[in-house]
């Protein structure tokens, strides 16, 4: 056959284009030749090959646009899909295999055009694999012509230029091949998702370009055919959609734990499950063959657990930055600690690209944190102290005042504790400062006519008393709570009076008596009413003194003994609960005083002693042993508190440099059936029966009035016992 010349090809192309344009104009209403030409260009059907195939098919099948036959060239599939998208009355060409009309049909099957999925599944194209023997689509042919399936054919592997690991190449970067992980994280293009608005890797591309979805948003919600819940499902377009939780995952016995689990990685020892994979990666050990700290993923010739190189695998899990294998690899071949150090620096740089000198102790402490992954999680969360601190760097204002101006919350409290513990911020009485900040916010939110009364009362009476106590006595969280309670009760009284169409100045004795009759916290309004009477904001009122009632709840002698035995010997109770409970039961210490104890207050020598208020109390040997065990195990959960100089609190809390909150310790004791108030009452009653009031006040830090009252209670009980006994003896003599 003579070779076709260029002139002949051009003439054939022009003739074919003219016939195709005539056909489109005749069968598409409202379309002229120019519009028809634009349609051909849009579907890539205006070249020599496309026009020739389309023209030949239209000459033999004039109704091809409405026939919907899969026996057609691929250019016709693109044409009818484009016309249907523009609203023309055409029939889409279905796949000859699955019948779907929403997929490209690039391949020719036995019954016509088929999609990629059907072409892969076409049994006529399958051959027995020369290695596994299964009939599958050939992926590679060996020199003798035999086929290898995709599972048996090993793609060529290269050393990744990004992370240094040996893997298949997903792309070629400027420095060499890139493995799939590095390609996804660094090189793969990203665009703005049309649903969530985030700049991410696009998983589904819209041909029109106005709706592109990232992997997170590219899912179809359907009712799972197994669990019945509406969730993102696989095979959502079929009659049997399956959600991720219900999908069948092949399992095999794990080489570590021997449980039938899905395989997360194949190591020289065999396939391992996800739990064992993470545990081995996160807990590297000393390899007995090479002496390096690496994840032990195989066995050496002696049968001992060994690292990858010592067990014949080209995987060492060593960090590319520091070269250490003691930390888990996290990103691009770097360990989690190196990544955390880099992200810390990037997070807290100023406008000049430098880390403020004041924050350097914080960054150093976080870089030494016991769990570097927790540091990354702290940096990642939007509501963490990291974001708050970053904003403070932008304003060049790292101070208590800047933190006080923020809405109160756990993140602000934890950040302040870290900065104070490291010396970046000065220490202060947080309970008093929290009461001041709360009062300012509360007063600001009041109506103007209430604010004129509550503001001076709060600042010049309730908080002034709190400041005086903080200067001369212990000021605890309970002290701050009392100041807030006084202000709240005053606000409640004004609101109650306003609801009765009465002002503060119009309150009568009957109104006050009715208000106080409800009891509870209302009784504390005497403090506010006395203040208001001195300033002539209210008339002369008779305010009865508040008389505190004597303790009524005590443990019996048997219950007291059993509780003490539980605290000293019950191994089922946590150690910190046993120690705190024993201090309450033996010495009657208040929980707020217990959490303020430090390890410096203990002398755990041959004769254990506890220092209270400058005096040493000899501890029972069993309690001294408990305290010694507790001191060795008590630690804070704060990242900064554990990595820097640890605080010496006997009961360290969750915040750096701070003790456990008294309310938290009370909750722990209550959860283990150790009632703090009743136990303390019983302990003080027992001590008051043996010690004079002066000694009781000095040793336990009680006020003189409280100590005298406890001693009087024991004497009153003793006199009642003597009188009752004398009465019984007299009755016996008369009888």
Query: How much helicity do the residues have?
Result: 40-55%
How many beta-strand elements?
30
Q: Which spans have pLDDT < 50 for at least 5 consecutive residues?
A: 716-722
Major sheet: 3 strands, antiparallel
Please state the structural category.
mainly alpha
Globally, the shape reads elongated
| Spatial strand order of the main sheet | 15-16-17
Give the radius of gyration.
Answer: 41 Å
Query: What distance lies between the first and last C-alpha atoms, to the nearest angstrom?
Result: 147 Å
> Mean pLDDT score, rounded?
84
Note the beta-strand portion. Answer: 5-15%
The DSSP helix count reads 28
Q: Can you walk me through this structure?
A:
The chain is mostly helical and 735 residues long. The chain is 45% helix and 11% strand. It is built from 28 helices and 30 strands. The strands form 14 sheets. Strands 15-16-17 form a 3-stranded antiparallel β-sheet, with no helix packed on it. Strands 28-29-30 form a 3-stranded antiparallel β-sheet. Strands 1-2 form a two-stranded antiparallel sheet. A hairpin with a 6-residue loop joins strand 11 and strand 12. Helix 1 packs across helix 3 and helix 15 runs parallel beside helix 17. The longest helix has 31 residues, at 704-734. It is elongated, with a radius of gyration of 41 Å.
